[in-house]
Amino acid sequence: MVYIALHNxxxxxxxxxxxxxxxxxxxxxxxxxxxxxxxxxxxxxxxVYGTFAVAISVWAFSYSSVFGQILILAYYAVWLPLILVDxxxxxxxxxxxxxPLAFAFYVCLSVFWSDAPGITLRTAIQYCxxxxxxxxxxxxxxxxxxxxGSLIGIFVVLLYSLKVGSYSYDMLDGTYxxxxxFSSKNQIGFVASLGIYFCIVFLxxxxxxxxxxxxxxxxxxxxxxxxxxxxxxxxxxxxPAALALVALLAMAKKLSLSYRRVIFLVGACGLAAVTVVxxxxxxxxxxxxxxxxxxxxxxxxxxEQGWDAAQQAPILGVGxxxxxVQGFAEAERLWNEFYITTRSGFHxxxxxxxxxxxxxxxxxxxxxxxxxxxxxxxxxxxxxxTWQAESVILAGVMVLLFIRSFVEIDTxxxxxxxxxxxxxxxxxLVRVPVxxxxxxxxxxxxxxxxxx
Length: 452
Prior knowledge:
Elements: H1 2-33, H2 38-41, H3 47-67, H4 69-79, H5 82-85, H6 87-91, H7 98-109, H8 117-140, H9 143-164, E1 167-170, E2 175-178, H10 185-206, H11 211-230, H12 233-251, H13 257-289, H14 299-310, H15 329-337, H16 351-384, H17 389-404, H18 417-429, H19 438-451
Helix pairs in contact: 3-4, 3-9, 7-8, 7-16, 8-18, 9-10, 9-11, 10-11, 10-12, 10-17, 12-17, 14-16, 16-17, 16-18, 17-18
């Protein structure tokens, strides 16, 4: 009996050792299968995931109105969970981006005096979460990854529009324009212009090897073709200006800081002279080339109506997204005058007037400061500090958005590529000394241990 007890005890010890061995082996296997955080949140290593996230975002910005909320949920799903991956890295020193945070807070605050508080609350939450996604993208995605993801997303978006092949009749100028799967020619024109821009800057600054020439050629050709088909004067005219600035800033790399400042002063004076000449008569000639007149197909009338509407609540506005509401007399009148049968998706075709009407002088000032601060921040970084290709690319993006801000509202609404690029560019200005996370420190410590 004693022998049997001892024998059973030894068997139990052996089984316990095997069980422990299996558990340890399982833990080692799980550790080996764990995805490193750096592949998701480190801008230098998150190329694969970042490219996928940006491409999904472009698709959501373009066709959320077509495919519904599933695309918006996908947009949130690729960005917001990254906070849980490494919240310390993403949330550290977030207060340094105080200007967009102040604007987001003011947008939410406008619900208290809004003419349509329910609509304001919902849209304000969407806009603030949209800014949060752009902030996460700026902390986790490099400029090169953003460019690659945008090119992939734009190519798929334009291919789908080409497949749909819809045309829209403009009752104001009497022309048929290609809109694809979009609701207006200006929307597809904007996406096509971004396709051209990102193709060129990728080939000039970011490509690695000759293969990039063959991969970007289809995107460039398709973007140029659909831009011509859309007949969008704003998109067509803004691209040369953005590329001209990029070329000027690229040449500045060969110059010393003192010469860069001289070129900047000469360029600023030249821009002022061109502006004066344009208002003296050249503007009508340029518009005539696109079949437009000096009224910009009714936009100047819209601006007048917007200015008059802003005088009703000049300081605080009527509330974010609280003007173009079905059932409101002024909105219904303008929809009727401009043949907007859907009674939605319309605006004053000017970012600053739209902000003035909905958020008053306070909101319009904050919106203007964000745009000007971002544009000047990237240009001044090249003129007064070290030259970097990333600042050149984002400066060109901001010139594109700045020109369009006078005739469109690309940066004032949620789930639009323009507002995403604006806040991404702003947050890239914030140079925050991020402490090295524990997982990165552990990786660096391994070679030293091996050498010891």
